[in-house]
Structure formats: C-alpha cells, structure tokens
Amino acid sequence: MLINDFFTITELKNIDGTINATIKLNASHKIFDGHFPENPITPGVVQIQIIKELLDKVLERECTLKEIGRCKFLAILNPNEDGEVDITIKHSQEDDVLKISAQGSSTDKNTTFFKFSAKYA
Fold first, then answer.
1. Going from the N-terminus, what domains does the chain have, and what CATH number goes with each?
2. Can you give the pTM of this predicted structure?
3. How confident is the model at residue 4 (pLDDT cuts 50, 70, 90)?
C-alpha cells in the first residue's frame, strides 16, 4: 500500500528475530499535501502501517494488527529533515500470535520518532 510509493527500503535484514530496516521517505507524496502544507509531518497511523508492511515483506505473509500494547510518538518525523529512518522490529511467534516491539529512529540515532509494541495475527 505505501511501500515503493510513500517509502522505499534501502536496507533490510532479518537476523535472529530482529528486523533492521532503513527506509527513505518520499517527501513529495500526496499525504503531505494535507499533513501539512509547507510543514510535512508523517502521520502516526502511517508510521504504524510502515511497520506492518515491513513485517509482511520479511515474513512473507499478510499480518493483521490485533492489539496495540504501547504506542508512543516521541518526535516529529518530517521527511524534509529526516528523509531516511532506521527501523528495528523485534518479533516472536507464540502459537497464532506474532508479538512485536518496534522503534523508528534517525539514521544518526540521535532522535527516536516512535516506539510501538503490538500483536498481529
């Protein structure tokens, strides 16, 4: 849905239950026309969708969000200032539940944009 349009993946690894990805945001995407003109801010729901799409790609299946445990947006993610974002997703499967803990940070690691934990089916 957003992959290869709103964002592209520049690096992607899945080692021992941890996904490490670097993504590049498309600052000219139409989402930013309304959120907000002249001062683009990546909506929180879009950041959550990015996590879902990375999970889908790495795990090669459709993941459905079932429960949000914690969701904190800690800094504004402006694609003009932070066009590349490092994302770390720790994941484990217990029966039919995929548990994740995710974080999005600036590539220099000086800013954490969000922290998110959830359960997916």
1. 7-120 (3.10.129.10)
2. 0.95
3. very high
